[in-house]
TrEMBL record:
Keyword Transmembrane: yes
Organism per entry: Paenibacillus cellulosilyticus
Signal peptide residue numbers: none
Localisation per UniProt entry: Cell membrane
Protein name per its UniProtKB record: CDP-diacylglycerol--glycerol-3-phosphate 3-phosphatidyltransferase
UniProt keyword Iron, yes or no: no
Pathway: Phospholipid metabolism; phosphatidylglycerol biosynthesis; phosphatidylglycerol from CDP-diacylglycerol: step 1/2; Lipid metabolism
Assigned keywords, A-Z: Cell membrane, Lipid biosynthesis, Lipid metabolism, Membrane, Phospholipid biosynthesis, Phospholipid metabolism, Transferase, Transmembrane, Transmembrane helix
Gene3D superfamilies: 1.20.120.1760
Gene Ontology biological-process annotations: phosphatidylglycerol biosynthetic process
Source organism phylogeny: Bacteria, Bacillati, Bacillota, Bacilli, Bacillales
Length: 191
Protein backbone atom coordinates (compact mmCIF):
# COMPACT_ATOMS: atom_id res chain seq x y z
CA UNK A 1 0.00 0.00 0.00
CA UNK A 2 1.92 3.01 -1.26
CA UNK A 3 1.18 6.74 -0.85
CA UNK A 4 -0.60 7.08 -4.21
CA UNK A 5 -2.96 4.21 -3.39
CA UNK A 6 -3.62 5.64 0.08
CA UNK A 7 -4.64 8.95 -1.53
CA UNK A 8 -6.97 7.10 -3.92
CA UNK A 9 -8.57 5.18 -1.05
CA UNK A 10 -8.96 8.44 0.91
CA UNK A 11 -10.92 9.83 -2.07
CA UNK A 12 -13.30 6.87 -1.85
CA UNK A 13 -13.74 7.39 1.91
CA UNK A 14 -14.58 11.08 1.37
CA UNK A 15 -17.62 10.16 -0.77
CA UNK A 16 -20.00 9.26 2.09
CA UNK A 17 -18.85 12.31 4.04
CA UNK A 18 -19.73 14.56 1.10
CA UNK A 19 -23.11 12.86 0.78
CA UNK A 20 -23.84 13.30 4.50
CA UNK A 21 -23.20 17.03 4.25
CA UNK A 22 -25.28 17.31 1.09
CA UNK A 23 -28.27 15.24 2.16
CA UNK A 24 -28.60 15.62 5.93
CA UNK A 25 -30.15 18.87 7.06
CA UNK A 26 -28.41 20.58 9.97
CA UNK A 27 -30.46 22.85 12.15
CA UNK A 28 -28.41 25.93 11.24
CA UNK A 29 -29.61 29.12 9.66
CA UNK A 30 -28.47 29.36 5.99
CA UNK A 31 -26.22 32.18 4.86
CA UNK A 32 -28.18 34.89 3.03
CA UNK A 33 -27.03 37.64 0.64
CA UNK A 34 -29.98 39.48 -0.92
CA UNK A 35 -31.84 36.73 -2.83
CA UNK A 36 -28.95 34.25 -2.56
CA UNK A 37 -29.03 31.55 0.09
CA UNK A 38 -26.69 28.66 0.86
CA UNK A 39 -26.41 26.23 3.74
CA UNK A 40 -23.28 25.53 5.74
CA UNK A 41 -23.69 21.90 4.69
CA UNK A 42 -23.35 22.81 1.02
CA UNK A 43 -20.22 24.87 1.63
CA UNK A 44 -18.55 22.08 3.62
CA UNK A 45 -19.61 19.45 1.05
CA UNK A 46 -18.24 21.58 -1.80
CA UNK A 47 -14.92 22.09 -0.02
CA UNK A 48 -14.56 18.35 0.66
CA UNK A 49 -15.53 17.62 -2.96
CA UNK A 50 -12.86 20.05 -4.22
CA UNK A 51 -10.26 18.33 -2.03
CA UNK A 52 -11.38 14.87 -3.20
CA UNK A 53 -11.41 15.90 -6.88
CA UNK A 54 -7.94 17.44 -6.49
CA UNK A 55 -6.52 14.13 -5.32
CA UNK A 56 -7.37 12.58 -8.70
CA UNK A 57 -4.40 14.15 -10.42
CA UNK A 58 -2.22 14.01 -7.32
CA UNK A 59 -2.29 10.23 -6.83
CA UNK A 60 -1.41 9.57 -10.47
CA UNK A 61 1.38 12.15 -10.42
CA UNK A 62 2.91 10.65 -7.27
CA UNK A 63 2.66 7.11 -8.65
CA UNK A 64 4.35 8.02 -11.95
CA UNK A 65 6.98 10.30 -10.41
CA UNK A 66 8.04 7.77 -7.80
CA UNK A 67 7.63 4.80 -10.16
CA UNK A 68 5.14 3.16 -7.81
CA UNK A 69 2.34 2.50 -10.30
CA UNK A 70 0.53 -0.66 -9.17
CA UNK A 71 -2.27 -2.81 -10.53
CA UNK A 72 -4.28 -1.89 -7.44
CA UNK A 73 -3.83 1.79 -8.28
CA UNK A 74 -4.80 1.20 -11.92
CA UNK A 75 -8.00 -0.45 -10.70
CA UNK A 76 -8.87 1.87 -7.81
CA UNK A 77 -8.12 5.28 -9.38
CA UNK A 78 -10.79 5.21 -12.10
CA UNK A 79 -13.19 3.48 -9.70
CA UNK A 80 -12.69 6.23 -7.11
CA UNK A 81 -13.36 8.89 -9.76
CA UNK A 82 -16.57 7.21 -10.90
CA UNK A 83 -17.84 6.65 -7.35
CA UNK A 84 -17.14 10.28 -6.40
CA UNK A 85 -18.86 11.78 -9.43
CA UNK A 86 -21.80 9.34 -9.46
CA UNK A 87 -22.53 9.77 -5.75
CA UNK A 88 -22.50 13.55 -5.95
CA UNK A 89 -24.59 13.61 -9.14
CA UNK A 90 -27.20 11.37 -7.53
CA UNK A 91 -27.18 13.60 -4.44
CA UNK A 92 -27.68 16.69 -6.60
CA UNK A 93 -30.64 15.02 -8.32
CA UNK A 94 -32.09 14.19 -4.88
CA UNK A 95 -31.63 17.85 -3.90
CA UNK A 96 -33.45 18.90 -7.10
CA UNK A 97 -30.40 20.79 -8.35
CA UNK A 98 -29.71 18.62 -11.40
CA UNK A 99 -32.00 17.02 -13.95
CA UNK A 100 -31.91 13.24 -13.61
CA UNK A 101 -31.33 12.74 -17.35
CA UNK A 102 -27.99 14.58 -17.14
CA UNK A 103 -26.87 12.40 -14.23
CA UNK A 104 -27.96 9.27 -16.11
CA UNK A 105 -26.11 10.31 -19.29
CA UNK A 106 -22.91 10.99 -17.33
CA UNK A 107 -23.09 7.81 -15.24
CA UNK A 108 -23.93 5.62 -18.27
CA UNK A 109 -20.99 7.03 -20.21
CA UNK A 110 -18.70 6.27 -17.26
CA UNK A 111 -19.90 2.65 -17.11
CA UNK A 112 -19.58 2.25 -20.89
CA UNK A 113 -16.02 3.60 -21.06
CA UNK A 114 -15.04 1.56 -18.00
CA UNK A 115 -16.39 -1.53 -19.76
CA UNK A 116 -14.38 -0.67 -22.85
CA UNK A 117 -11.26 -0.29 -20.73
CA UNK A 118 -11.92 -3.71 -19.17
CA UNK A 119 -12.16 -5.24 -22.65
CA UNK A 120 -8.86 -3.57 -23.52
CA UNK A 121 -7.22 -5.01 -20.40
CA UNK A 122 -8.34 -8.49 -21.44
CA UNK A 123 -6.46 -7.85 -24.69
CA UNK A 124 -3.42 -6.64 -22.69
CA UNK A 125 -3.97 -3.08 -23.91
CA UNK A 126 -4.45 0.14 -21.99
CA UNK A 127 -6.74 2.93 -23.08
CA UNK A 128 -5.14 6.16 -21.93
CA UNK A 129 -7.25 9.17 -21.03
CA UNK A 130 -7.90 11.28 -24.11
CA UNK A 131 -7.90 15.05 -24.23
CA UNK A 132 -11.71 14.90 -24.47
CA UNK A 133 -11.82 12.66 -21.41
CA UNK A 134 -9.74 15.20 -19.51
CA UNK A 135 -11.99 18.06 -20.67
CA UNK A 136 -15.01 16.01 -19.65
CA UNK A 137 -13.63 15.60 -16.15
CA UNK A 138 -12.80 19.29 -15.79
CA UNK A 139 -16.24 20.39 -17.01
CA UNK A 140 -18.05 17.86 -14.80
CA UNK A 141 -16.13 19.02 -11.72
CA UNK A 142 -16.86 22.66 -12.57
CA UNK A 143 -20.56 21.86 -13.05
CA UNK A 144 -20.76 19.95 -9.77
CA UNK A 145 -19.12 22.77 -7.80
CA UNK A 146 -21.43 25.37 -9.38
CA UNK A 147 -24.47 23.25 -8.48
CA UNK A 148 -23.25 22.55 -4.96
CA UNK A 149 -22.72 26.27 -4.36
CA UNK A 150 -26.10 27.35 -5.78
CA UNK A 151 -24.47 29.03 -8.79
CA UNK A 152 -22.24 31.20 -6.61
CA UNK A 153 -20.93 33.81 -7.60
CA UNK A 154 -22.75 33.92 -10.96
CA UNK A 155 -26.14 34.37 -9.34
CA UNK A 156 -25.15 37.94 -8.39
CA UNK A 157 -24.75 38.90 -12.06
CA UNK A 158 -27.84 36.93 -13.11
CA UNK A 159 -26.00 34.33 -15.19
CA UNK A 160 -27.20 30.71 -15.01
CA UNK A 161 -23.68 29.31 -15.17
CA UNK A 162 -24.80 26.14 -13.36
CA UNK A 163 -27.37 25.41 -16.07
CA UNK A 164 -24.91 26.22 -18.85
CA UNK A 165 -22.23 24.02 -17.24
CA UNK A 166 -24.73 21.16 -16.92
CA UNK A 167 -25.52 21.24 -20.63
CA UNK A 168 -21.85 21.57 -21.60
CA UNK A 169 -20.96 18.66 -19.29
CA UNK A 170 -23.67 16.47 -20.85
CA UNK A 171 -22.54 17.30 -24.40
CA UNK A 172 -18.80 16.84 -23.75
CA UNK A 173 -19.50 13.66 -21.78
CA UNK A 174 -21.39 12.12 -24.70
CA UNK A 175 -18.82 13.32 -27.25
CA UNK A 176 -15.87 11.99 -25.24
CA UNK A 177 -17.63 8.63 -24.84
CA UNK A 178 -18.23 8.38 -28.58
CA UNK A 179 -14.60 9.40 -29.17
CA UNK A 180 -13.33 6.53 -26.97
CA UNK A 181 -15.49 3.97 -28.78
CA UNK A 182 -14.62 5.23 -32.28
CA UNK A 183 -10.89 5.24 -31.55
CA UNK A 184 -11.07 1.78 -29.98
CA UNK A 185 -13.65 0.10 -32.22
CA UNK A 186 -11.14 -2.67 -32.97
CA UNK A 187 -11.61 -3.90 -29.38
CA UNK A 188 -15.32 -4.49 -29.84
CA UNK A 189 -16.02 -7.97 -31.19
CA UNK A 190 -18.56 -7.96 -33.99
CA UNK A 191 -20.41 -11.27 -34.30
Amino acid sequence: MNLANKITIARIFLVPIIMIFLLIKLDLEPIHFDDFSITYNQIVAALIFIIAASTDGLDGYIARKNKIVTNLGKLLDPLADKVLVAAVLISLVEMDKLDAWIAVVIICREFAVTGLRQIALLENKVIAASKWGKWKTAVQITMIIALMLNNFPFTFIDIRFDLFASWVAAIITVYSGIDYFVKNKNLIPIA
